[in-house]
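Course assignment 3, question 2. Fill in each field.
Student: A.L.
Task: Predict the tertiary structure for the chain below.
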Amino acid sequence: MIQPIIDPSGVIHIFKGKNAEPIKLVIGEILTAEIMDIFPSGTIQLKIDNRIINAQPQRELPLNRGDTVMVKVEKPLEDGTIPLRVLTTAESEEIKTSLINFDRELADKLLKLIDSLFLKSSTQSEQTKQSQMALLENTLSLPTEHLSESSKVDLMQKIIDLVFSRNTVTNNLLELLALIEQNNFPEEQISHLKSLIITSTDELGSEKLKEILLNSGVSFEAKMKSLLSEPVRMEQIKHDMKVVLQTIIEEAKAKGSEDIIFKAENLLKQIEGYQVLSKTYQGFFTFLPLFWQEIDGGNMAYKSLKRQGKEYHSVFITLNFKEDTLSFVTTMINKTFFISFSGKPEIVSSIRENESLLRNRFKEKGMILGSINYVNKVDELVRQWNIKEGSISVTV
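Answer field:
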C-alpha cells in the first residue's frame, strides 16, 4: 500500500512509482475524475489531473469506462486509505452551476481590473488609487488559475482587444523619457530608462532582449523573494523597471513634476496588469519594449510544461504596427518549432510570400522548423498557446 504524506496545510502527497512528482490531493476539494478502466477485481482506474490513481469501491457503483464523475477528497483513515466520495447527480449539478457562476464573476472582476490598470486618464484621485490597489490585492488573492479553460480563452480574447485599443506601454515609456530629459533629471535615471527600450534593430539580440524582458518589472517581486534563498546581484534589481520608475517618481515629487509622477505611476499600473495576467494564466506576460521603423511595441506571453518526457515551450507575441497588429504563436516541442500567424490578409499574404526566407533563417541557425500555419482569428492562437496537460494543439 502507498502510504500518503499529509502536510500541516491539509495537502495529501502520494508518491507513486518512479515519478518524483507526487500526486497532490487537498482534503475537502472536489475533483473531476475520468474512469479509465474497471478491472475484474472491481478496482477502478481513475484519471485525475492527468495522473492515474487506482481506487477500490466500497459498494457497487453504476460506472462504465469513459464516464466522468465528480469526487470529494475526504480525511484519510487510520490505515492510510484516502476516501474519494462520488458525488450524487444533484450535488454535481449544483457544483457545476456554482463553478459557472464563479467563472463568470471572476472573469468579470479580472476584466474590470485589467481595464482600470490599462486605462489612460488625465487625472486620478487618491481615492481611485486606493480603490484600484484594493481591487488588485483582492484579485491576486483569488484562485484565478482554477478558471475553466474556455473562460480563460474567452477572457484572454477580450483582454487582447482591450489592450490593443489602449496606448502601448512602449509609447508611455518614450513619453516619460522625453519628459525627464526635458526636466533635467539625473543622467543615471535617463540612462536606466533608455536601457529598457530597444530603438533600433542593431540593439536587438537574444541577450539584450532577455535582459529587458526580465527587467520589465513583472518579475520584480520574484527577484526580491529570491534574495532570501540565494544571492542575487543588487545591480540586477537596481535596473528593474519597477525600481527605475519608483526612483523617477521620488525625484519628480522632489521637483514637483506632477505630469511625470502621473506618467510613471500609470506605467507601474500597467506592469501590475501584466502581473495579474501572469498569475491568471500561469505563465509570463509582459510588454515588448520595441520601438523602431513601423513597430510600436507589443505584448508577449510565455509558458512551458513537461509531459511524457517531452518539453513544451510556447510564446504568444503581438506586434503593434502603425496601422495594424500581427499575432503569432511559436511552440517548441523537443527542439522542433511550430509557428502560427494571424493578422489582416495583406500582412499574412506578405508572410506567405517570404515563408522560404523564414525557413532559411531557421536552417541557418541550426533550428528545426516543423510547420508554418495561418489562422483567421486570434482566439485560435490563444487556444494553441494555452497548452495544458493532455491537450497540445499544433497543426502540422
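Instructor remarks: Confidence is low (pLDDT under 50) at residues 389-396. The CA atoms of residues 384 and 393 lie 5 Å apart.
Grade: pending
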